[in-house]
Hints:
The protein is of the alpha+beta class. It folds into 2 domains: 5-80 and 152-173, no CATH class; 88-148. It is built from 4 helices and 7 strands; from the N terminus they run ββββαβααββα. Residues 37, 39-40, 42, 80-81, 83-84 line the site of zinc ion (ZN).
Amino acid sequence: MSTLPYASPVPLAVEGDVFRDGALLVVRHGTVLPASCILCNAPAEGKQPVRLVFTWDPSFRITGETTLQLRQTVVVHAHLCAGHLRTWRSGRVLGLGGILAGVLLMMASGAVAGWSELSAVPRYTAAGIVGMMAAFLVVTVSMFWLAFKTRTVACRRIEGGYAHLEHAHRAFVERFNVLPL
Ligand SMILES: [Zn+2]
């Protein structure tokens, strides 16, 4: 586990890596969560955990400190059940694939439009422009697809190297000890 400068010293570290705070899951940077689906608590033994990266920036609320000092990132390895893993993976594959296809279509359409403009009769200029607009739409839809399908838990805040996560399944959260004050 890598140690981030802002994550040390971690007073909670001697007590554990995962806690609960009401419905929130409080997880230390670098933790591999138990093999149950974080979204529905179904067994997820034998499945590779997914790497979730959370970034939180409280600088808009606190004045007098730079964004660089306050920006914090926590990486958590969480398990998903077969169904949630399928949704997450299809979101990644189709979302990233769609973005790539859209960018390629945009470049190809731009090249066609440019080449058409340089030729004696610019008969493909309109087609190239329509292609670029379609490509822009494909990229936009793919980004929404990626964000929607790969949505798991959300980070409420990060403190002392621990991420406070919401939307984890209640039964999953309740197996952990209450966050010590
Ligand atoms: Zn699940």
